[in-house]
Automatic annotation (TrEMBL):
GO terms for molecular function: NADP binding; phosphogluconate dehydrogenase (decarboxylating) activity. Residues 167-298 form the 6-phosphogluconate dehydrogenase C-terminal domain. Pfam families: 6PGD, NAD_binding_2. It comes from Candidatus Uhrbacteria bacterium RIFCSPHIGHO2_01_FULL_63_20. Keywords: Gluconate utilization, Oxidoreductase. This is 6-phosphogluconate dehydrogenase (Decarboxylating). SMART domains: 6PGD (SM01350).
Length: 302
């Protein structure tokens, strides 16, 4: 399948490689020419403009996947819209607010263009080796491209969850849950660290917890890896836990629905507090973010 692909960051670049591995033909565009050249060497078709990208996709029923930060999506759509035709499909695979996805879908629908919002989970490793895809949009459009979604995901790791906005709503809640789980690990390992009489080796404990315990999880394994790489004191890792907003969005949305979210709310508050008062708990959150998402472990020093 020929696919227009915009955005070659940590997620987008790995996704393009997976597409190539499964026999798809991505036609790529990014603002940085060196990045485009890198994936051309892998087999993708590079372009220097959105106009060139669309021409290379042909004239009918074209698919364009946008993989850029959510704040940039509307700008990309503004440039793309004059180049799109009735029957084309646009996918937003970033972490956009679900309300924006609903509006973008309506905007494109007026022109006969289909839209799917896809929450992608699994980090850069998932993008390369098989992700979890939470999809929102028309069932007919989903069915049309389901082979692609199966190729990009782990086994049983893709599903249409509802109409426009449903994919990004689910991803927002997923990330809210992630906030709570990460904060629980941060608090627990801080307690272990403070019990000096037992002199716990936190890497050893994390490794043990990841071997058949009730809290065994991918986050647990990433924390184990973080202690291995940075040491049990997490030297060089910031104690200020940054976030990308989805936890806060989850809390705000839950409040509007009358749903209590004490755990997620507390985890968001903990990150905000850590920005003013760096802590070991902040370090634990940051090292997990680094291991699963490739995020800078100490952005303030950059």
């Amino acid at each position: 399948m020929r696919i227009g692909f915009i955005g070659l960051g940590k997620m987008g670049g790995n996704m393009v490689e997976r597409m190539l591995e499964h026999g798809h033909r991505p036609v790529i565009f990014a603002r940085t020419k060196a990045t485009v050249r890198r994936y051309v060497k892998c087999g993708a078709t590079g372009t220097e403009s959105l106009s060139e990208m669309m021409k290379r996709l042909g004239t009918k029923n074209r698919l364009v996947w946008i993989m850029v930060p959510h704040a940039a999506v509307d700008g990309v759509l503004d440039e793309l819209l004059p180049l799109l035709k009735r029957g084309d499909t646009v996918i937003d695979g970033g972490n956009s607010p679900w309300t924006r996805s609903v509006k973008r879908s309506a905007r494109l629908k007026k022109r006969g263009i289909a839209f799917l919002d896809i929450g992608v989970s699994g980090g850069p490793g998932g993008a390369r080796n098989g992700a979890c895809l939470m999809i929102g949009g028309p069932a007919s459009t989903y069915r049309k491209f389901r082979r692609l979604f199966k190729d990009l995901s782990v086994k049983d790791g893709e599903a249409l969850l509802g109409p426009a906005g449903a994919g990004h709503f689910a991803k927002m809640v997923h990330n809210g849950i992630e906030y709570g789980m990460m904060q629980a690990f941060a608090e627990g390992f801080d307690v272990l660290r403070k019990k000096s009489a037992f002199r716990y080796d936190l890497h050893q404990v994390a490794r043990l917890f990841s071997r058949g315990s009730v809290v065994t999880s991918r986050l647990n394994s990433w924390l184990e890896d973080g202690f291995k790489v940075f040491g049990t004191g997490l030297k060089g890792v910031s104690g200020s836990a940054v976030g990308t907003g989805e936890g806060k969005w989850t809390v705000q949305t839950a409040k509007s629905l009358g749903v209590p979210t004490p755990v997620i709310s507390a985890s968001v508050a903990a990150r905000v507090k850590s920005m003013k008062d760096p802590s070991f708990q902040g370090k634990v959150v940051m090292v997990m973010r680094n291991r699963f998402g490739g995020h800078d472990p100490n952005p303030k020093k950059r």
